[in-house]
């Protein structure tokens, strides 16, 4: 079984042009149709232009997509929260793109995050090997190779993957932040380019 997050991009891709470099993303519309439609439509409409990465935690993730820049704002293209779209084929590997949400059901809006963690603790990987109903052998092996945050699997919706610009994700993840994990200077998505095949 191949892992679709590491196959060649199919269909639409997006490049986030940030003040620290470009991050290119591919999507999985068959696995997470509403989340992909929501994110790509926001990109086309310019919703994310000028929006910051407001929450950055090294070895965990970088989070953006809130026009208010507080972590409290933003909405879906439909104006109401979206339900989770979990897939057995998608995991929180390093570079995974996923939707943020609150603890309430159907609370996905416009905020997203990109997984940054470089490695997974070996004892956790060994536990995962025992839980083949959640993690396939291939998934555990890939986590061992590329890193990620397996504890988020089946809790948040993965709907895309970084295809270029992981070095930019690294740079952003390593900036200085305040006690709220907010970067000390703004990391801005200056513009977004959508490429449709």
Compute the number of helices. Answer: 4
Query: What is the structural class?
Result: alpha+beta
Biggest sheet, open or closed, and with what strands and sense? 8 strands, antiparallel, barrel
Instruction: Give the overall form.
Output: globular
Stretches with pLDDT under 50, minimum 5 residues: none
Order of helices and strands: EEHEEEEHHEHE
Note the beta-strand portion.
Answer: 15-25%
Strand ordering within the main sheet: 1-2-7-5-6-4-3-8
Number of strands: 8
Rg, nearest Å: 16 Å
State the helical fraction.
Answer: 10-25%
Oligomer type: single chain
Average pLDDT across residues? 96
Alpha-carbon distance between the termini? Answer: 26 Å
List keywords for this structure.
alpha+beta; about 200 residues; 8 strands; 4 helices; about 20% helix; eight-stranded antiparallel beta barrel
Q: What is the secondary structure topology, with strand pairs?
A:
Elements: E1 13-18, E2 21-27, H1 33-44, E3 51-57, E4 61-64, E5 96-99, E6 112-115, H2 122-130, H3 137-146, E7 158-164, H4 166-173, E8 188-195
Antiparallel strand pairs: 1-2, 1-8, 2-7, 3-4, 3-8, 4-6, 5-6, 5-7
Helix pairs in contact: 2-3
